[in-house]
Amino acid sequence: ETGVTQSPTHLIKTRGQQVTLRCSSQSGHNTVSWYQQALGQGPQFIFQYYREEENGRGNFPPRFSGLQFPNYSSELNVNALELDDSALYLCASSRDGRSPLHFGNGTRLTVT
Amino acid sequence: QQQVKQSPQSLIVQKGGISIINCAYENTAFDYFPWYQQFPGKGPALLIAIRPDVSEKKEGRFTISFNKSAKQFSLHIMDSQPGDSATYFCAAMSTGANSKLTFGKGITLSVRP
């Protein structure tokens, strides 16, 4: 059984740029969530996608957006990058909206 | 407002000892309480989880104790090993809504040989 995979593993961007992060969910999982983990902090919920529709959003501005594709893979897009966006971005998938979440190893984004 | 609070902030335990990490929550709608373990450079890995219809759950060396009236739950690691050295996060979720996990800030556990 393939776990959650994320790409790229590391990324360096400049303030004001845009970035796209990708996630492949675990086999058999139809729900994908994205979390932001700042250094030394717990992950913070960004949003969740279920069957290609956004199904819940945390306290993040609209410049954070996402997509889920028919194969349940997902993208996180962040526009107008700010220095505070530097963090580990985690993708998690679950069998449905109420099952345990399984996380990938994340994408480390650095904004300079 | 931090809805899930962990204590202590860090923990050092001798090999073979018992590690105890506590967590308190505020939202009474939470009905699923997992613990995650995270190693440097890795994503959080689900360790053990409990629902409020039971007061204790044990899986190998890991035990969750749950106190619904006090809105607290704790993780006990028996016979702690150096390989258990990691960051541990408690989390909580209301499964009636979407599967949004609210995490604590995490604690760093160091198990000394």
Topology:
The complex is a heterodimer of chains A (112) and B (113).
Chain A: E1 5-7, E2 10-13, E3 19-24, E4 31-37, E5 44-50, E6 53-57, E7 64-68, E8 74-78, E9 87-94, E10 102-103, E11 107-111
Chain B: E1 4-7, E2 10-14, E3 19-25, E4 33-38, E5 45-50, E6 56-59, E7 62-67, E8 72-77, E9 86-92, E10 102-103, E11 107-112
Structural summary, described in words:
The complex is a heterodimer of chains A (112) and B (113). Chain A has 112 residues and is mainly beta. Chain A contains no helices and eleven strands. With 113 residues, chain B is mainly β. Chain B contains no helices and eleven strands. In chain B, strands 2, 4, 5, 9, 10 and 11 form a six-stranded mixed β-sheet that branches. In chain B, strands 1-3-8-7-6 form a five-stranded antiparallel β-sheet, with no helix packed on it. In chain B, β4 and β5 form a beta hairpin. Chain B starts with a strand and ends with a strand. Classes of the chains: A mainly beta (112), B mainly beta (113).
Count of runs of 4 or more consecutive helical residues of chain B: 0
SSE string of chain B: EEEEEEEEEEE
User: What low-confidence regions of chain A span 5 or more consecutive residues with pLDDT below 50?
Assistant: none
Strand content of chain B: over 45%
Q: Tell me the Rg of chain A in angstroms.
A: 13 Å
Shape of chain B: globular
Distance between the termini of chain A: 37 Å
Q: What oligomeric state best describes the polypeptide chains here?
A: heterodimer
Helical content of chain A stands at under 10%
The arrangement of helices and strands of chain A along the chain is EEEEEEEEEEE
| Average pLDDT of chain B | 93
The count of β-strands of chain B is: 11
The biggest beta sheet of chain B is recorded as: 6 strands, mixed
Would you report the number of β strands of chain A? 11
> Greatest contact pair?
A-B, 28 and 24 residues
Radius of gyration of chain B: 13 Å
